## 1
Amino acid sequence: MLHTRSAWLRAAAPVAVLALALTACGGNKDAPSSASGSGSGSGVDDGKNSADAAAAADEKSPQTPQPSEPSGGVLRPGRSGTGQYREESGKTTYEVVAQKVHVGTEAEARKVVQSPEDAKGLVAVTAYVKFTNKGPGIVKGLPKVDNGTEIYADGQRGGLLIGAPESLPGCEDPIDIDNWQVGESHTICQTYMIPEHSTSLEVHWGEEGAARPFIWKFDGAG
């Protein structure tokens, strides 16, 4: 589900103190192959759309894995995949699903950064990702699984906007998640800055160093 052009940033707590950590919008991520692991394992192969590259690889494979298998790949929005992430308490298996993305306006984006010029020609987009702890045990302390989430626009990784998502409706703050039980789900958001007139959005998730992240495509983001 893609929500665009709404005043969602008005719901964020003191936007004036939000800091922008902008990693050159439009820059490819340094990583091997068509998808590189990262906070949200992702990447672009020779400038081609990473989701298309991953889909092509699936078509060539005689045994394409199901979305529930921990191997990464392209999924439809709302479909879940299963992967592992190394938390402080050990490696944990998660069921992961990108539920929706929410796109703001340039005017709103300029209000949430310390220097409005940093947001020129950009908009903030938030990915809502639900994680379910599948074990083997409780996740103690601050979970880091959301670090595996990234947002790409037209095949290029956006810039991470720090401090925005936790206070938005439907987003949970990882700081408030304590002793994450097996079978328990939490929706943790990430917000990125992307070029204003992007037409295709991708949410990537994977453990750092993963060769192939999960990719959810959201079209019509212009």
## 2
Amino acid sequence: MKEKIRSFATIAVAVCSLPLVCSSQHASPNIIKQHERNSVSIALTFANKNRNSVRRALSLIGGLDLNASATGFLVGDGLVITSYHVVSGKLSAAKKKMLGFKPDDELEVKAYVQGCRAKVLKVDEEADLALLKICDSSLTAKRPVFRTAPAKDEQLFLIAQPVNKKIVRRGSFHGLYTYQGQQYWSARIDGQDGFSGSPVYNDRGEVVGVFCSYDSVNEVALISPGIKAQKFLEDYDANTQSNPGPK
């Protein structure tokens, strides 16, 4: 059964709400326009997994309170890619405190697109990727073309959509980057809360990767490489074909 959000009024995590800007000197406005419709806003609700039965009942009576927002992008009919950490419930102690939780609270998260709860179909924790199935069958897209080996200083742009506000940020490919023991690609693109899961394109509209995080010390965006996202989808397709399930 589809689970609907009752209100989109309460967003506790600060995110940017700047309007879409399309003045890139590299990617043409047509390329940006072609891909901007594929980015979608993902509304998130967090709850303590260890709530007692009384608190759970009160939560159901009171409806769903939105805690945060992230971004995803369409990769097929009703299929959306975002970051694994968006749907994992694994937040830093600082963000837990912002949302009113204790540092040691174990959280569960629900993700919604256009007010309807999305289903997590597949995750890759190491690559920081998640594939969601959304309710709205009218949201469709062709499988994107992935750029598997970007060049140094290749011009890039990102299309984020936190809280239903599209934002374009531009920059350039920086190279391989190791952060907290994990390897990413990096780009000279500004990042902020709500950008997780955003697609990063080159000026031909090929997906270079998926925005994961931002290293504010070195001022680089961390990106899950497009080659990993491509394999992630290929593995999903192969598994779906071998296990089609009921229609």
## 3
Amino acid sequence: MDVMTRGKTARTDQHTPSLGIETLQKVAKHMARRQVAGLPRNYELFYESMFGHDPALGRDLEALGSRPSQLHLDQLGLKYRLVSHCGLAEEKIQRDAVTILKNLSDMLASGIERKQTFVRSLDMIANALREDEQRSLASLIDELDFLNASATELGQAELGLAETLKSGLAKIETAEKAAKQAHEAALRDRLTGLPNRVAMTRRLEDIYGAATQPRIAVVAAEADDLDSIRRQYGEDAANRMLKRLAAIFRKTIKKNDFVARNDDSQFLFIFHEVDQDDVVAIGERLRHAVETNLIYAAENELNGGGVQLAVGYSLADNAVRPDDLLAQAEHALKGARQESRNPIMRFGR
């Protein structure tokens, strides 16, 4: 669709570059200077602190000083819900569950042994009484005292086992909740609260895995001028715009549709039961919502410049696999960014 943007020149490709050798070298150099082990999750942590546009993460990592412990690094990764660190919660659950079950097994074995000892003692005393009916009262009282002490010890052991079992189950339940929260966090963008690309990919896989042929469109949209805001006003201003965009998109789409943040200023959508005309109308609605609701912020932060939205999309008819559909929409977005006269572009057109 040929739509003019208000006095805007053609967009340049501002898409965040893929992780290249130079970037990896910078991350590795910074890790080596801090004497941090070259673990994959540490690479992610340092990459996010250096290139992830989250000043708080960078400040927290710097606060750990040189040679930070792996425990502190992992705690920081969990705090900021990094994907590779969220898996640590599930590993911890498994370790804790094994430890708890082993302790319970040992206590059960000890309890069984005590019961068997008590039963043997009871049998011995009963047999002795049958064989020697003339035993003294004092001897009988001693044996009964022994049985009473054994029974008391057995009861205390049973109570201890019950308490340990109760405490162990509570720990497992707490750890399970923490792991569930970490798993859910791994599917969320920590800045906007929207689903992330991993969640988007899983949703598409579920749709393509259904018995019926999907009739959907994937839309990739990106706001321009975010880099300009970041350069002039800092990360906080850019992050405020991203949060505002996320809120606008939540309100703009229907309940059964899906929106996720891909990276930096790019957002992804899934729309159900739509054709090309529907998607173009949706694209116009998204652009209008952004232009209308971000005018105040744009005028204050960009001295009157409005925020424009580039939109690329692809229909499921053109893609056999879910990752193809996603890649096509992102490719169409790249074209829309470069062509101001056609800010809503379909893949292959």
## 4
Amino acid sequence: MTARRTRIACLLVPSPALAAELAARPQLQGRPVAVSDDSGRRVAEASEAAAARGVRPEQRLSEALACCPALAVLEARPARVRRAAAQLVEAAATVSPLVEEAAPGEVYADLRGLEGLYPDEDALARALLSEAPRELGARLGVADGRFTARVAAFAARPGGWLRVGRAQARAFLAPQPTALLPLEEAAREWLALLGIATLGDLAALPRHAVEAQLGETGGLAWLAARGEDATPLTPLPHRERVLERAQAEPPLIGREALLHSFGQLLGRALARPVARGRLVRAVRLSAVTEDERLWERRRVLTEPTGDRARLWTALEPSIEAAEFGGPVAELALEIGGLTAERGHQGRLLRDGARRRREQLDEMARHLRLRYGKAALRRVVALAPRSRIPERRYALADYEP
């Protein structure tokens, strides 16, 4: 096994909400089952048995039941979906240190550098699949590009894996439907209007023609259809955090009991060695009800603090105003963005250059944590003497 032969793996559960529900209700395996969307009026995901009877995603439930009177309609439980998605991430992380969660149920792992740990590709694939819960029916695709790996995972059977080499990628992708491409609805409609149903149909078009209609996204889709997708993985960043959980027996109903329990979790989190003497930037609260409904709130503090009273003052209103939707059976509190230094924005211009840079970096990290992406930009010189103004400078994310 060489680094070039095993580059990217995609661990996939195509219908995570359905898989999570069937894992909790194994008696429904093999039967026509559908999971409703948030509105409760349309089909979000359907089992193979349901699809064989004409049930499809985005179909009205009334139409689905007319097609299949025996259809079992389930409501998605976000807590179950989140738990299943986290299990997939953990499964991939046990094999590779570079893991990306593209969506719930869709996880990528960079396999380069793992050749010496496993005797062959089959052993590596078995290691990945064995870590994923069997009841989720995860499948694995391995290829040199992430899109090809994803399509390979779709083509694999539940619990199985499929390897697509670089030389075979284009032929493998050609008969696959264009619905697998990560395109917006308008782009899909354009492809359907032209009768472009397969990836081979798209790959046969000139790239410039596709880009003229769909822009840069179309060009990337054209490359993906040819097995030439070079999109890199974006591994999950290492975040220092402290997570505390509690099971409530019997489930909690009263507001005072919930406040007391969350307060205990906060105290336990701050007492952990990794959090002692450090400041907290963000806190995430979550609760799972008796029927597995999920409630969650996240607070990013304007100014980091390690003081329990100040943290509780920031969190208490969220708990007071919460509508949990039923008795709470499980609570969790996570503190993150741990830092040993507090930034003071007011003195940004009065301190020396080194101190200003440190504070700027601190604020950049705080904003990234709060908004999930870089919030500051810096000017980068590309070709300052170029005759074309647009080519002289560019804006790039500010990375502390």
